[in-house]
Every structure is written in C-alpha cells, then in structure tokens.
Amino acid sequence: MKIIKLAIRSLAILMVFAGLSIFYGCPGCEFEMPISINSASVTLIDNTGEKPTQSSSEFQPREAIAFRVTLYDTTDYYDYDYYANSKAKPFSPIQAAYALSCNETYVLQTRLESIRIFALQDLTDEIKTTDEVTDLFVAEIDNYNTSNTLYYTLDKVVDALNSFDFYWQPRISIDFFLTQEPSSSSLSFELHFLLDNGKTLIVPTPNIIVIS
Amino acid sequence: MKLKKSMATLCLLVVLPTVLEAQRFFQFNKVAYWYGHNRAWHERKAQTSDFDFLDHISTNNSHFGLMLSLGLGNNFSVDFRGYRFENTSYHIKGNLLYHLKPNLGFLAGGFTSNQLVSNSYKDFFNNYPSGYILFTPNQYIPEPIIRYSHWGLYGGSYLELRWGRATLLGSLCVGASQNVPFTILVGQKKLNSNIRRELEYNANRNLFLFVMPEITLGIDIFELESSTFGLEITCNAMVSNKSISYELTERVWTASNTEGQSIDIPSRIVTDLRYDVSIFWKF
C-alpha cells in the first residue's frame, strides 16, 4: 500500500515537471529575428498606368523607365527552426513548439549607407556609360507610407529603409523611376548598395528597350 | 453614474431658475419646423483652365429646420433658425428685429454655414491637364470630407401684410460674408510616364457682398386659446458676386520639388435659392 502511495506521489511530482516543460516549450509570439541584407534581385516594372506593376516585358516607354529591386536575407535566420531552437531549453524533455502564425518582426542588423546608380549604356549624348545617374532617379518603398503620392529621393529611401519595420517577411522591394527621358534606345543600369559592414551589393538591371 | 446625476442636478439648479428669470424679459413668439430644398445657379464661367471650387460645392440638396422666435419687450424680437441638410452640412442664422410699427421694421443678423465640396472635383483632375489621371495612393484610406464654411453679417428691413388669416412677410437685406480657409490635396499621375505630382489647394479668405431677399406666405389654420397653428411657405435667395481664390502649391516627383503660386479666380454671380414649407405655432 505504501509503495503504491509512493509511486503515485512520484508520478505526480514528475507530472508537475512535465507540465513546467510544456510552458518552456511554448514559443510565445515575441518574434524578433535578426536579418542582414545580403542579396538582391531586379525585375522590370510597368509604370504606364496609375500604379507600378511587375512586368516581364523588356520594352518600356521613354518617359516610364522603371525597375524594382528586392533586397533580402538568404541565410536561414528567419527559419522557424532557428526560432524554435533558440527557445528550446537545455535538459527539457519536451521539444519547443513551432510557432507558425506569429507577427514576425525582423530586425535589420546591417544598415544601408548609400544607394548609387551607374549607367551601363549611354543614356543621352551627355550621359555616357559608367556615368553616375543616381540623381536622375527617384524611388518608393513597397508598403512604406502608403498614403504618400510622391516619390522619395534616394537619400530618403536609405533613411526610411534603415528604420523600416519588417513584418511577415525579411525582404523589401524598392521601385526606382527614371526622371529624365533617355535619348538612346537601349538602357541598363548598375545599382550599388553600400552596407555599413563594408560590403557593397552590386546589382545590374536587365536590358531595357526604349519605345516612344 | 453619480457624476451624471450630479451634473443633471446642477443643470436643473442653474438652468431652471435662469429660464424662469429670463421669461420675465422675453416671451415665446413663434416656433416653426420645416422641410425644404436648396438650389444654386452660377453665372457662366469665363474661359479659364484654373480649378474653380465654386463648380464643386454641393448646393442642391434637401434640408429640414427649426425656428424659434422670442419677443424682447414691445419693440424688439430675436429669432434663431437652424437648417440641417441631407448631406450633413448646416446653416444657422440669427436675427434681431426692431419693430418700428406693428408691420414694419428693421433687422440685423448673422449666419454661419457649411457646405460639402462634392467628389465631382475628382472628375476635373482625372483628365486635367490632358494625359494626367487622379492618383490614389491607397484606396483603403477613407477620403477626407472637405467642407466649404462661411459666415456673414447683414442688415435690412421687413414689411408684413395681413389679409384675414393670410400673412405676407417680405424682407430685404444686404450683407457681407467670408469663407473659412480650407485645403484640398490632389495626387496625379501622368499616363505612360513616371511623372507624379501633388497639388495642394489652400483656399484664401474671400470676402463677398450679397443681397438677400426673403418672402414668406403664411396662413393661420386654427387657434387654440391664445396660440395659432398654421402653415408657411418661405423662399429665401442670396445673390452674391463671389469667387474662391487660393494658393496653389505644386510638388512634382518628390516633396522637395515645390513651386507655389497665387491663383485669382474671377468673381461670378451666384444665386442660392432656399425654399421650404413649414408648420408654425404662434403664441
């Protein structure tokens, strides 16, 4: 009889520990992931209508030269595994849960120092290949200040990006718009994203065929 | 709950004696409720490409209202009228009347009024200048309600004629009015181009003069002790020569690329007509 009572007490104590482990295993939703911009991709956009839309066409009207750059983190930091493992406690008999519907917030670890754009082909008779054309571009950040009508200068984009709240996805898209009509019929550009860790992301745009 | 009760008690203690005391100095003359309609006619506009707010102020709509007239001794009375329009705008006015004779006198008054700037202004910007369309950054953000508010003072005389149960009351006033500054922000995008611009219209304070004739035809339907119940038809016009000039700020591409100019819009004759049918109770 005594043995049975002892066994029940032991089991109860073990269940208390197991219950505590469940609390340890719960991930919660304070989900702040460190990310670093280390890669970029470029697509052309169609800005002939009211709003810019992604386009697969290389043809763009002379007054509507535009492209979209997406900056993102290719590491696995933002994997749920990373998060769950980070929450797992040593000696816990229960594995940490995988949170799949939290409001993920990504904290940018590397700051952007500057954005510079160079012409890879002649733009006009005065603006030749390799010339810097940063001042000829304006931009807007996807999902940033959605009530704004106007574009931003690239300096403002850099400031905004460094204070941007990354929710849901560790990536950001920036649309670039040329403010000057080119006289040539074919264009391409190279974008330099200088990061505060000393690295520079260099991204060439696809070739753009200018139509009137 | 306690606070509400305390406030109600305080109101009773303050308001009730005030009303009772005030009744020694004035008496209720008349109460009226009405339903009516507004219309406006604008003089044809001179050929200009500038945006004119007057073309987009919502003026044709129905209203209901309330009038309260109080007598102040033998020679003076005051009346207050409130109009509520179906599109949530309003018009409030108050008159002080001096009765020179029982059927003749002078009046002075003031009003404050607001009207909605209708969304028709968007049609203007959807193709002006050619090739530009209206740019709405986020369709989920509610559009602001823009109101054209103005206030005015006037003075004039009135004449009342009676034939049995019928009464004809006519008045003629002249006055001056001024609008309250307001702002409209318009975003535009040029088709087949990257160009985007933002136009900020800041309406100035514009002063204008007006003539305001009013005629009321009333008929007493029945009498109850010392009070009379009846019907009235009122027609009020405000003829003015007005314009809404403004400061225009144009921003192209970015917020830092700004240019401003003052736009003077030529004045036009505008006739606002208000007509209503009311029931009244005279004391």
Task: Give a nutshell description of this structure.
The complex is a heterodimer of chains A (212) and B (283). With 212 residues, chain A is α+β, with helices and mostly antiparallel strands.
Explain what the structure shows:
The complex is a heterodimer of chains A (212) and B (283). Chain A has a domain at 38-75 and 109-211: Immunoglobulins (Immunoglobulin-like), CATH 2.60.40.10. Chain A is elongated, with a radius of gyration of 26 Å. Chain A contains three helices and 14 strands. In chain A, the strands form four sheets. Chain A has a five-stranded antiparallel sheet, covered by helices on one side. In chain A, a hairpin with a 6-residue loop joins strand 2 and strand 3. With 212 residues, chain A is α+β, with helices and mostly antiparallel strands. Chain A has helices spanning 2-25, 80-87, 154-162; strands at 32-35, 39-46, 53-55, 59-61, 66-72, 105-108, 112-119, 137-141, 166-167, 171-178, 186-187, 189-195, 200-204, 208-211. With 283 residues, chain B is mainly β. Chain B has one domain (27-282): Lipocalin, CATH 2.40.128. Chain B is 9% helix and 62% strand. Chain B is built from two helices and 15 strands. In chain B, the strands form two sheets. Chain B has a ten-stranded antiparallel beta barrel with strand order 1-2-3-4-5-7-8-11-12-15. Chain A binds chain B through residues 47-50, 61, 63-66, 138, 146-153, 156, 177-179, and chain B through 133, 135-138, 141, 185, 187-198, 251, 253-256.
